[in-house]
Amino acid sequence: MKKIINRPDDVVRDMIEGMRLANQDIRVLPGTGVVVRKDAPVPGKVGVISGGGSGHEPAHGGFVGKGMLDAACAGDVFTSPSVDQMMKAIRAVDAGRGVLIIAKNYTGDNLNFDMAMELLEEEGIKTAKVKVHDDAAVEENADTTGRRGVAGTMLVQKVACACAEAGGSLEEVKEAAQSAADNVRTIGFALSPCIIPAVGKPGFSLGEEEMELGTGIHGEAGIRRMKVDTAHNLVEIMLEKLLADMPLEEGEEVCVLVNGMGSTPLMELYILYREVHMKLTGEGIRIAKAYVGEYMTSLEMAGASVSIMKLDERRKRFLLAPADTAGFKQF
Amino acid sequence: MKKIINRPDDVVRDMIEGMRLANQDIRVLPGTGVVVRKDAPVPGKVGVISGGGSGHEPAHGGFVGKGMLDAACAGDVFTSPSVDQMMKAIRAVDAGRGVLIIAKNYTGDNLNFDMAMELLEEEGIKTAKVKVHDDAAVEENADTTGRRGVAGTMLVQKVACACAEAGGSLEEVKEAAQSAADNVRTIGFALSPCIIPAVGKPGFSLGEEEMELGTGIHGEAGIRRMKVDTAHNLVEIMLEKLLADMPLEEGEEVCVLVNGMGSTPLMELYILYREVHMKLTGEGIRIAKAYVGEYMTSLEMAGASVSIMKLDERRKRFLLAPADTAGFKQF
C-alpha cells in the first residue's frame, strides 16, 4: 500500500485537521470529525447537514460553506459517522428553524441519523431527513435495502442548500431535496479497486483489461464485468441503463455530472463528458449545466460515474445559485 | 493500459471538445487545441496566454476564463504546442495592448513561443514572455537547461492575470508575472508512473514500497529514490530541499499549494497540507492562502507537489483577486 499518510488509524483525523487549516471558512467541532460552516448557525436559515464514511472527498466536508452544507459528519473510512457526531452537527447548525439531513442510502448512516433525530426531538430541535438513492445500477426489490446513494447526492445537496439559503422553511427545503433526489440517477464503473488505509490491500481485483459496470463507491460489486471498451461504447451502455430507469423526453432539460472516482485523469472525464453530451443532445435533451471533476470519490479507485438530474424551473434555479466551498464553487 | 478514451491519437482533440461542450465561457479556435475566453479579446485588457503539452489538466485549458488566462494552447500529450497554435492564440486575445505569454521552462515550448512572438511582431502585435522554473528539485547549472516549470506556474498565472484584469500595461503584467516566478518554488514526488495513451506503457517503474523525490511532471527522473515514508517525514525532507533554495524569514507571508499529480486522493493531499502547515507556522511563517487539490497533474501519476510563493502586498492582492474558470474558482 503506497499512501502518503502517518498512521492508518489517524487518516481521518489528520485529513479533517488539514481541511480546517487550509480553509478559513470552516471550523471543526473539537474532538469530532464534524466540519461546520464558521458562521453557523446562520440566523434565520434552515440548517442542512450531510455525512457518511470518509474516503469520498471532497464529499462531504469539502462541501461545507456558503450556498452548500452547514455541516458534515465524517465517519472513519467507508464507515458511518456516530449518533454523537450527528447530534453535535445538528445542534451546531440549528438556528431555530430546523435542520434537514441529506443521507445517502446506507443502512448504518440512516440508523444513526434516525436515532440522532429522535434524541434531538426531545431537545426541541426540528429535523427532517431525505435519503438519496440514485444508483441506477442497483435493482430496487425486496431483497435489497434499495439503491445506494452515490455521486448524485452532491446535486441533491446543492438544490436543497440553495433552497435553504433562499429562506425556505424546513418543509420547503425537504421538499426541494426530495424532488432533487427523485429526479437524479447515476451509473458508474470501476477500472481498479481502492485500498482502505487500515486494511492495506485492495477490496477486489480486476483483470488486466477488465472493468466493472455499476461498482459502488465502496467497491460494492457491480452488475457486469466486461473488457475495457471505448468511451463511446461505454457511454452507450451506461446511458442505456440509466435512461431505462429514468426516461427523458425530447426537449427535457437536465444537468449532467461526470464524476471521477479518484485516479481517473480529468482528460478522460472530459472525453466521457463529450460522449454523454453528444448522445443526449442528439436525442433532443437540453443540458442546462455540466459538472466534470471529482466530487464523490472512492479513495484512489479508477473509474467514473455519470449522473443526470432532470430539471424543472425551481430545481434549475437552486442548482445554478452561487456556492463557495472548498470542493464546489459556483458564481 | 486501462483508459476511458476512444482512439489514443484523438485524446487531446476529444478532451478539448469535451471541455468546450461542458463550459459555456470558453470557445475553441476551430481545428486547433486553442481554448479561448469567450469574450476575448477583452477591450482594454492585456491578454495573458499559456500552454504546453496536454496531460496536466486542468492546466492550462481549465484555467481559461475571467480573472485567469485569456487563452491556452494544448499540445499533444506531453508535447509542445505548435508555433501556429500559439500565433492563433495570441491573435485571438490581443486587444491592442499586447499579450503576455507565461511559459513553463521546457525547450520546445519556449522555442515555439519565441518564434511565434517574432512572427507576430511583424504584424504589429506586442508580446512579452515570462518563463516559470519553479522546480527546486533540479539544480541550476551549465549542464541543464535550468529548472523545470511545474505546479507553481498556476500561481504565477493567477498573479499575472489579476494584474492584467486590474488594467496593468504589458510591462506591468510582465513585471507581476516575473516577480511571482522569482518567488515561487515547488518540490514534488511520485509514487507511481503514468501512461501516455499513444505509448501504452509506463514511462518508468518504482518498487512496491518505493517512491521518488523530485520527479518531473512528465516523469523525468527525480533526485532520490526512497522507501515510502510517513507524511510527516516526507514533508520534512521536501521542505528542507525547498527552503534551502528559497529561505523564508520568520514573519514572512506565503501562499502554499499542495497539488495532486493525478491519482493521489484528496485525503492524502489534506494530510500532506496539515504537515506543511504545522512545519511552516511552527517556524513563524504566516500562510495567507492555501490551495489543496489537482491543478497541474501528470495523467494518472500518483504523487503530489508542494509549492510555496512568497507574498508581498501586491502579489497577495493579485493572488486573492477573484477568478472564475473550470479549474480554478475564487470569490
Topology:
The structure is a homodimer of 331-residue chains.
Chain A: H1 11-22, E1 26-28, E2 34-37, E3 47-54, E4 71-77, H2 83-93, E5 99-104, H3 107-121, E6 127-132, H4 152-165, H5 170-182, E7 184-192, E8 210-213, E9 224-227, H6 231-245, E10 253-260, H7 266-282, E11 286-293, E12 302-310, H8 313-320, E13 323-324, E14 329-330
Parallel strand pairs in A: 3-4, 3-5, 5-6, 10-11
Antiparallel strand pairs in A: 1-2, 2-4, 7-8, 7-12, 8-9, 10-12, 13-14
Helix pairs in contact in A: 2-3, 4-5, 4-8, 6-7
- Assembly type: homodimer
Biggest sheet strand order of chain A reads 1-2-4-3-5-6
* General shape of chain A: globular
Using only C-alpha atoms, the radius of gyration of chain A works out to 19 Å
**Secondary structure: helix percent of chain A:** 25-40%
Structural class by sheet pairing and helices of chain A: alpha/beta
The greatest inter-chain interface is formed by: A-B, 58 and 58 residues
**Major β-sheet of chain A, in short?**
6 strands, mixed
Total DSSP E strands of chain A:
14
The overall average pLDDT of chain A, rounded, is 96
End-to-end distance of chain A, in Å? Answer: 39 Å
Contiguous uncertain segments of 5+ residues of chain A: none
Could you write a compact summary of the structure shown?
The structure is a homodimer of 331-residue chains. Chain A is of the alpha/beta class and 331 residues long. Helix content of chain A is 32%, strand content 24%.
